[in-house]
Design goal:
single chain, mainly alpha, two-stranded antiparallel ribbon, binds iron/sulfur cluster
């Protein structure tokens, strides 16, 4: 039986899912709309300790969190970042 990890990011699930949703999704966006990796990782570290993270999505906003955390205009609905 596969264990469901509620505190995981998509990159922790399957390579195919991560590439299809996160890598391809971010590649389709203008680079000037994205934060650098350090800022994205800082945000994702906060999400990984948050009870609203559920299998790569935020239960508060429904977003794929690795996409939202990479956007300059991305915000946490609970103002955690
Ligand atoms: S965006 Fe905010 S509410 Fe959603 S998982 Fe991250 S820290 Fe939690």
């Amino acid at each position: 039986m596969t264990k469901i990890c509620t505190r995981c990011l998509l990159k922790d699930f399957s390579k195919e899912q991560f590439e299809a949703i996160v890598i391809n999704g971010l590649a389709s966006l203008p680079k000037e709309d994205l934060v650098d990796n350090a800022e994205s990782n800082r945000r994702l570290d906060v999400c990984k300790d948050c009870g609203k993270l559920n299998q790569g999505t935020c239960l508060a906003c429904g977003c794929f969190i690795e996409i939202r955390a990479s956007l300059k205009k991305g915000t946490c609905p609970y103002s955690k970042w």
